[in-house]
Amino acid sequence: xxxxxxxxxxxxxxxxxxxxxxxxxxxxxxxxxxxxxxxxxxxxxxxxxxxxxxxxxxxxxxxxxxxxxxxxxxxxxxxxxxxxxxxxxxxxxxxxxxxxxxxxxxxxxxxxxxxxxxxxxxxxxxxxxxxxxxxxxxxxxxxxxxxxxxxxxxxxxxxxxxxxxxxxxxxxxxxxxxxxxxxxxxxxxxxxxxxxxxxxxxxxxxxxxxxxxxxxxxxxxxxxxxxxxxxxxxxxxxxxxxxxxxxxxxxxxxxxxxxxxxxxxxxxxxxxxxxxxxxxxxxxxxxxxxxxxxxxxxxxxxxxxxxxxxxxxxxxxxxxxxxxxxxxxxxxxxxxxxxxxxxxxxxxxxxxxxxxxxxxxxxxxxxxxxxxxxxxxxxxxxxxxxxxxxxxxxxxxxxxxxxxxxxxxxxxxxxxxx
DNA sequence: TCTGGGGTCCTAGGACCC
DNA sequence: TCTGGGGTCCTAGGACCC
Length: 418
Hints:
The chain is α+β, with helices and mostly antiparallel strands. A 5-stranded mixed β-sheet has the order 5-6-1-7-8. It has a 4-stranded antiparallel β-sheet with strand order 9-12-10-11, covered by helices on one side. It has 4 domains: 8-14 and 81-172, Alpha-Beta Plaits; 16-78, MutS, DNA mismatch repair protein, domain I (3-Layer(aba) Sandwich); 175-239, 5' to 3' exonuclease, C-terminal subdomain (DNA polymerase, domain 1), CATH 1.10.150.20; 251-391, DNA polymerase, Y-family, little finger domain (Dna Ligase, domain 1, 2-Layer Sandwich). The longest helix is centred in the C-terminal third of the chain and has 24 residues, at 358-381. Strand 5 (101-105) and strand 6 form a beta hairpin. The protein has 13 helices and 12 strands. Helix 4 (80-95) crosses helix 6 (123-138) and helix 11 (265-286) packs antiparallel against helix 12 (318-332). Helix content is 39%, strand content 19%. It binds a DNA duplex through residues 16, 36-37, 41-47, 59-66, 68-69, 104-108, 186-192, 220-222, 238, 249-257, 292, 294, 302, 304-310, 340-341, 343, 348.
């Protein structure tokens, strides 16, 4: 941590997914719009326009609930690629204001603006020109919070919404936080809020009445930091950490919820194959090798289990991921029980281990080359062009085998791997 | 109301080692 | 032979965020 005070910006795009969709279809402007899927689908709201929010619609709400609350809303499927594209534009604008930019998610970022006064003027002026430039270059609105730490900047950007700028002047942090609901503190969700409420703690300022030992006992090291915050202290932790380059990923996963629950083992293993391919591909793209492979299984009644296994050597191969995840599935699925969701998760990334066994190393090398070739085909002809799961019962939908590629050990249609 | 998909971080217990 | 303690890894689950 530097000696002097920092100036941190938190830039948060307003109704990002909705706003991007409006650029592609201007007729959506000013209407109640729900992004995330169709009104009858199994799914939740990714984003809602301010118009739809007036009816109580908010993100993470089931689509069917949103449809009941706001029947006249227009339901739009999400377009990930569009958001990624616009996220890049946003990032680009931000880098013209500070070299220290950290995207916190697809639609928000932290900037360390410390010492940029000579270039951009005092914080409020810098924020206003950033706001202006964002609008002209991306056609999107954002809100900007300014403070001496990530936490203060983040909370103030939320208070600045929509389309506003808010600066918490250094020294005023405790005064700013005290009257806020504890729920306004990032990291305090439904459960923590209820726990705090049961202790009579409703506002951030109420925390000041309790001593550190008590809060740590009830809320762990997090409670301690929160208490410090309530008093305006720099308590340490992520919210006081430096703003730097984007961190390396710690896990890569894919999951799928069925339109209808299933108890068909063949179908589920086919799904796991596809998910393994998706994960393997991302690992190869990122040059990553995972040691821990995890299966996620959610039954009809929503009870969810995860089962993990750590490999002796890290991998990025679809087949090795699939083999693990399939045996975890076979060991743990309650036969006959209907399943709602399956997921494949990889973590514990490590450097590629040297192969002791020469023959084994050769086999892996050939696999790697074949999979890279398949990745390139998918780039050119689309995701559905190549799949090891082809011919197995469709986990997602029947697949069309347009551009077959010769993969070592490729399965014959309709047969399992043994 | 009937609950997505992609992540991060934390806790807690048991294994294992010294 | 009635009972240590610290450190690290692994696994499972959960809170939380966008």
